[in-house]
Amino acid sequence: MALAVFRYLLGSASRFAEWRPEEFSTPRRLLEIGYLYGTLVMLIGVPLLFVAIGALFILVGLVLFFIGWIGQVIYFFRLRSTFDSAMFLAAGILTILSIFSLGILQFVVWILVFLEAGYLENRVASATIQI
């Protein structure tokens, strides 16, 4: 499930960065560094845990993953300002608060994101809002 979420998130951030690079290229890059490269570094580190260097890989991966988390917060706030969306504002705030929880808030965040993304997609398709 996490892979699908990250793929969805990175894909949408890339499309928004093409549309408005001045607003979305930084969050897209942070998401890419954190969630793509951080995950890869951690995956390399797991089998290397039996040697000392594996812990270093996992630590670096976690730092990169945190960079991606910061990119996610920025991304949600930029989407909020671009589309004047209360749900993306809530998603950004809950993402910040999720650092103190064990994932339940992130689950709520993704529900909000998928609901709002679908709603905005319908509005764009029906030309209710211009992009």
Assign the structural class, choosing from mainly alpha, mainly beta, alpha/beta, alpha+beta, or little secondary structure: mainly alpha
Run of helices and strands: HHHHH
Number of domains: 1
Shape: elongated
Quaternary assembly: single chain
The number of E-state strands comes to 0
- Roughly how many Å apart are the termini? 29 Å
* Uncertain parts: none
Main beta-sheet annotation: none
Overall average pLDDT: 88
Can you describe this structure?
With 131 residues, the chain is mainly alpha-helical. It has one domain. It contains 5 helices and no strands. Helix 2 runs antiparallel to helix 3. The longest helix has 32 residues. It is elongated. The model has no long low-confidence stretch (mean pLDDT 88).
Question: Can I get a quick summary?
Answer:
By secondary structure, this protein is mostly helical. The protein has 5 helices and no strands.
What topology does this entry show?
Blueprint: H1 2-19, H2 21-45, H3 52-83, H4 86-97, H5 104-125
Helix pairs in contact: 1-2, 2-3, 3-4, 4-5
Kindly list the characteristics that best describe this protein:
single chain, 131 residues, mainly alpha
